[in-house]
Write a structure and sequence with these properties.
Chain lengths: 175, 597
């Protein structure tokens, strides 16, 4: 893996390389060169398989992290490519031309994180949520608990007690 | 050749006819994996109903409900979690955060019922077949909050054993944030605080780094935060839910952090007390201890003009004259008191009721009177020799030290008592001995064995670090006197202090004796109230119970309707009860005066 890295770091703006174990390594690549690097890895370094494309919401830094996990079946190695994109302008070049199944991942990311991949096939079609028009639910500012309370509560037969208020009533009934 | 294989190979499949099938005959009887997250279990007696499971549940699947047979008491809300399996997503966050480690999950996942409403139950209270199942998800070995308290910086024993400099140095911002971050905001502590302070709310204010909001929350229920942030008996911490599986939250030090970080000159602006509309009514307050100051503060906020009559030259009562400076520095007492004075409260110092002005006169001049005169009289063991002039009361000596007067310090000192006052005088005199003789020779002995000594644990530990000998479990029987000089204290082994009914009834083994050499003895076995300021006619009209305690109603109003009483003479003894009493009395006085006209 080290030799590959030595080669590509001369060609692409990569950083934070980390060999996690014999079979897995991580690196970060600049957004505008990320697809170029993926093409290079697919065509010239034998990373023929896209294992997953997913995202992390770094709300503190106003960024999304995209993680492309690509696999070289001959070397039996995984490489995790991290790409940080602006959270406000959450958009990334589609890679459905490199791997057809990427379109499905991109459709999921559009729905769950609100990250757009222009020209990706069917990217705007609902993936698992139907009729969802609120904040994408995997964004960290989506308040799951509030959503649950608004959507599913109150249910008939359910009552709530606040321990502080309840203890006050029970222990200090005069006050 | 290939062709023959093509014809024969399908028949090889026939061999599978006699193989054991891989499918499961009865899928409903298949057991989940050992760590499967199935239906919940709850050890109902271990659970304290803190509601942290309810709070963390992102699906709003948990409600806290009362359960028959579970009483609400300090440290236990009496509520238990009820789970709606229509909403539960089996994520197990409730188990992972559970403060008492009572909640877990069985590996049972099949349950068929035609009525959807049956899938709501209280684990542990509503019996289920999986209640005794050993397998399933248990709290993992990582924690969602830190179980360990952020260490407080303190002076080392050698840095402090000759001086009265404050020992506890307070939290830095980073420390306070880390400590506040451990709080699960359950609020179990609130009911146990005598003043019912909004503890989770002010800890949240620290987490949000909004210390002005924190200060406002403190002053809602407690106008002496610098003082309480240092010397409160912190009963709240004894019931803290996080304390069940770790150290309780350092509630007292966090309160101090808020008070310390807000500069005194900004208090009026932060608390919105720059201008208070006056109502023209006057209240007299006797004693400037915690209850009197608290009453004055809340009455002043309501527009009353308050005058405090204080016997001693400075305000604070036992907080100033009973607690040593190394625990509670005088400038911090002043910070709290000066703010209350800035609201227009007046203090008449060196004024003794019954001598300089009578209570009857106060009744004529003011619309109501509040008395929080405290427990300042030392109690004697009354053992032979206790009338010697070298036998002192702790409260008298502590007061003299605070007044700046010199107190007698002998080479060998014995203190009788096991409470915080005994430790206060022990550690104060150890410092003075160290200053005077360069060494410490002081023995503190109590009836109570070490496990039931009423003093705070840290007082005992720190006292020993400062070279005081603390020897619990002995009953004093005689002070040996020779030529009118104290020689020492004879004691016998104390076997038990309380009887089966929990009443004070010490039992001794007279055959196990000990003798502590001393040329000075200090008695610190409790304090009594001095009610000499009450005239005979007032005493006659004042209702008392058969133990001589004054009876007051929930507003701390006595049988003499214009006279309200609170603080150590009614409840406690401690600062926080005094504060709570003063607050309630202020509301009572306001009601009384409004109904009078």
């Amino acid at each position: 893996m080290k030799e590959i890295i030595n080669k590509i770091e001369k060609l692409y703006p990569i950083s934070d390389f980390k060999q996690q174990n014999d079979k897995t390594a991580l690196l970060t690549v600049e957004q505008d060169k990320a697809v170029d690097l993926l093409i290079y890895m697919q065509k010239f370094e034998g990373f023929k398989h896209l294992a997953i494309l997913t995202a992390v919401d770094w709300i503190e830094n106003n960024q999304f992290q995209l993680s492309y996990i690509i696999n070289n079946p001959e070397l039996k190695m995984d490489l995790i490519l991290r790409v940080f994109i602006d959270r406000e302008k959450a958009e990334m070049t589609s890679i459905h031309n490199l791997w057809e199944q990427a379109a499905t991942y991109q459709r999921e990311l559009k729905e769950m994180f609100g990250i757009n991949f222009p020209n990706s096939p069917r990217v705007d079609k609902p993936f698992i949520l139907e009729g969802w028009d609120g904040l994408p639910p995997y964004r960290r500012d989506f308040d799951t608990k509030k959503y649950s309370e608004d959507t599913y509560f109150p249910r008939e037969g359910r009552t709530k007690n606040n321990p502080v208020e309840y203890m006050k009533q029970k222990l200090y009934p005069d006050e | 050749m290939g062709k023959i294989n093509d014809i024969l190979s399908p028949f090889t499949a026939w061999k599978h006819l006699i193989r054991e099938p891989l499918t499961i005959k009865k899928p409903l009887e298949r057991e989940g994996a050992d760590r499967y997250r199935g239906f919940h279990k709850n050890e109902i007696d271990k659970c304290i109903g803190c509601g942290t499971c309810e709070d963390i549940c992102q699906n709003a699947a948990i409600d806290l409900v009362p359960v028959e047979g579970i009483e609400t008491k300090h440290g236990d809300s009496g509520l238990r979690p009820k789970i709606d399996y229509g909403r539960c997503c089996w994520c197990a966050l409730c188990v992972d955060i559970c403060t008492t480690n009572s909640l877990s999950m069985s590996n049972e996942f099949t349950w068929i019922d035609e009525d959807a409403d049956n899938f709501l139950f209280v684990p542990g209270a509503d019996a289920k077949p999986w209640d005794n199942s050993e397998k399933g998800w248990k709290k993992p070995n990582y924690n969602l909050y830190n179980p360990n308290r952020v260490e407080m910086n303190e002076l080392h024993p050698e840095e402090r054993d000759k001086s009265f400099i404050e020992i506890v140095q307070g939290y830095s911002k980073g420390q306070a944030l880390a400590e506040a971050d451990r709080c699960v905001e359950c609020g179990i502590c609130t009911a146990t605080c005598p003043a019912q302070m909004g503890i989770p709310e002010y800890i949240k204010a620290i987490r949000n780094d909004n210390l002005e909001e924190g200060l406002r929350i403190l002053y809602d229920t407690n106008p002496l935060p610098e003082i309480c942030g240092r010397i409160c008996t912190h009963k709240c911490e004894t019931v803290c839910s996080v304390g069940h599986q770790g150290d309780p939250i350092s509630i007292r030090w966090l309160k101090r952090y808020i008070a310390d970080q807000n500069p005194s000159e900004k208090f009026k602006k932060i608390l919105g007390t720059d201008t208070i509309e006056q109502n023209g009514k006057k209240v007299a307050i006797i004693g400037s201890g915690p209850s009197g100051l608290s009453a004055a503060h809340y009455l002043a906020l309501m527009g009353y003009s308050c005058t405090i009559f204080e016997k001693l030259p400075l305000a604070g009562g036992m907080m100033r004259y009973g607690i040593p400076e190394y625990r509670l520095p005088y400038d911090q007492i002043d910070k709290d008191i000066n703010y209350i004075l800035s609201l227009g409260v007046e203090i008449k110092y060196n004024t003794t009721i019954g001598k300089d002005i009578t209570l009857e006169q106060l009744n004529k001049d003011y619309d109501a009177v509040f008395a929080g005169t405290g427990l300042h009289l030392g109690r004697s063991t009354k053992i032979p020799g206790s009338d010697n002039k070298n036998v002192y009361f702790a409260t008298d000596l502590l007061r003299e030290i605070s007044l700046g007067n010199e107190i007698p310090i002998e080479n060998k000192i014995v203190v009788i008592g096991g409470g915080n006052v005994a430790l206060d005088i022990t550690r104060s005199m150890a410092r003075l001995q160290n200053q005077k003789y360069g060494k410490v020779n002081i023995i503190t002995t109590s009836l109570e064995s070490e496990d039931i000594m009423p003093a705070d644990r840290e007082e005992i530990i720190e006292g020993r670090e400062e070279q005081a000998q603390i020897i619990p479990g002995w009953g004093p029987i005689e002070i040996e006197i020779e030529n009118d000089k104290v020689k020492g204290l004879h004691v016998v082994k104390c076997l038990s202090v309380f009887d089966e009914d929990g009443r004070f009834n010490p039992k001794f083994d007279e055959n196990i004796k000990n003798f502590f050499e001393a040329d000075m003895i200090v008695e610190s076995i409790g304090q009594g109230m001095d009610l000499s300021y009450l005239s005979v006619s007032i005493k006659e009209n004042l209702e008392m119970d058969n133990r001589g305690r004054i009876i007051v109603n929930k507003h701390f109003q006595s049988s003499i309707e214009w006279l309200f009483l609170g603080g150590d003479i009614i409840q406690g003894p401690d600062v926080i009860h005094g504060i709570a009493n003063g607050h309630k009395a202020a509301i009572g006085i306001d009601n009384y005066i409004n109904n009078k006209k």
